[in-house]
Amino acid sequence: MIRTIKNRYWAYWLAKYDCKLATKVSNLGKAAIVQMEEHVKLGPVDIHSGNHSFGAYSYMRSGGELYGNTTIGRFCSIGKNVIIGLEKNKHPTDWLSTSLFTKQIEKNYQSISINDRTVIGNDCWIGQDAIIMSGVCIGDGAIVGARALVTSDVPPYAIYGGIPAKLIRYRFSQETIAKFIETNWWNVSVNYLEKLKIDQPEPCIREVRILGDTAAANYRKLRITKYGAKLVSV
To answer: Hey, where are the domains in the chain?
Structure first.
């Protein structure tokens, strides 16, 4: 009963910042930390441990899993059953056995294994059932196709798909991509962005340049653990 009341309270508290954690606060792992800016929506996602951050207006559908430590930028769209940060070296490949059959052997392996941070840039679209291995960096504006297995870095504004995932094409010319990255439009307040004709990228870039720092977004940040949530910056 107390647990239900607690979860309802924190769900209401998060909603004040237009945020959602469908997993419920009490279901987070003891070693898990979720940091999010305003306007983040997370469906029922397994988060047992690690430090995970989400930028404003990003969402992750149900059935997903987060491992290790992850950083996810603003305006990201992550589909159902996406696994992020799956360990590349969960078991040794050059030892006598790949099995960690005693606690001491497991401890020895964990002490030398590296837990890399997995990074997804801003405005990325990750398709349903995709798997992104630990330590991978997906550049701003990139698209990962459904059921893709991403084992290496993805360049900005590239479209990747397949097993393992490979380059299909770029969304724009390299010249236009450079302009997008230079402007960092995801740092502009949505009050200005919603007035742009986003179906016309080049004019949008010019408008964002004119706006400059005067239109910068200022999102509040929240920190959530299984014990509750708090505002960490304004």
So the answer is: 172-218
